[in-house]
Amino acid sequence: MKDSPFIYGSTVSVHAFTNREVETKKLSGNLLNGINTTIISPRRWGKSSLVEKVTTDIAKKHKNVKVVLIDLFSVSSEEEFLEAFAREVIKSSSSKWQEWLASGKDFFKQLTPKLSVGVDPQSDFSLGFDWKELSKNSDEVLNLPENIANKKNIKFIICLDEFQNLSTFNHAANFEKKLRANWQRHKLVTYCLYGSKRHMMTEIFNNASKPFYRFGDIMLLPKIETAKWQQFITEGFEKTSKRIDASTAACIPQVMKNHSWYVQQLAHYTWNVTAKKAGITEVNAALTELIQANTPLYQREIEIISTTQLNLLKAICKGETRFTSAAVMKEYAIGTPRNVSKNKTILINNDIVHEVDGSYEFLDPAFELWFKKQYFNQSYLIKPLI
Ligand SMILES: Nc1ncnc2c1ncn2[C@@H]1O[C@H](COP(=O)(O)OP(=O)(O)O)[C@@H](O)[C@H]1O
Ligand SMILES: [Mg+2]
Q: According to the model, what pLDDT value does residue 182 have?
């Protein structure tokens, strides 16, 4: 049996990567020309995949450009960040681990990093600082890439995923100031900072009183259009000796509102239940399976929100926009205007809804389908095409 041509759950940058020609070109141009770039989109739309694709291509073509990729998802303090930053910069600066160990002496004056490699240096290289010393000399770490680049005649592209996590560190405001002050002087290092929490990212980059204001170009990553998905899905089936007609292939992104992760997931489930040719029956079977598989997750989402928040979500689901009108407040029992405004913020901060052109939308299209079925008994199945 052939492997599925559809992938979800990890980043896709080679096999299952589609479209994004415009974004690929723009990001690649920016990063090669020293333009710091911020990318913002809700989670699972394709930021990490795009950055991985672009930087892999760059690294292949430009041998003097070194790429550093750090995911801040599980980094929870300034010290941890600085250690990860130094470790990854040193690691990408050379392919020889002997040089990594030497860099401890070559590039630090105040700090004395403890460096060690294990049996497999690639996966087992560690770096630690004395945290007391580190707090006094963090500039030395922050300027490390520029200094190495200067000495070795190379350039760095430093990509920091889930960058908004930084603002949860203790003394975050101070740290942001320090980062900006150092990084903006770098000539041989370009930064790509991206994240999923839109409100936090815009607060960092779009607030004129914050240090990262105007740090670089801001890209709001859009969704991939239906026509591109349709082609991608059709080709995926063909490559693996199965078939799907064009109109059925278009239903997959349509029902998933072009959400990258879910389009791939539904395409995969459809491909899986298809023996030879997929039609609406197969897509519906796949959709049922997908919703069922995710149901425990969706139930948990509901369990953690309050009754008025749930009611507000129902009103959003029904397409209401005037939440503080007396009729809407009464019909959905969403409480006072103050409750509404507070709950809106909570639903946004919890990544359940987002604002699009003044109205609110569910962020997760499959959760929305489940929600409609659960609370309004609306079927999510696709009607057969005539
Ligand atoms: N360009 C793309 N082409 C095809 N599928 C994509 C693309 N970008 C993302 N995806 C799908 O979406 C999923 C989530 O992508 P990811 O890059 O992890 O998003 P983010 O970093 O924005 O959370 C991937 O696992 C993949 O299934
Ligand atoms: Mg990501």
A: 96
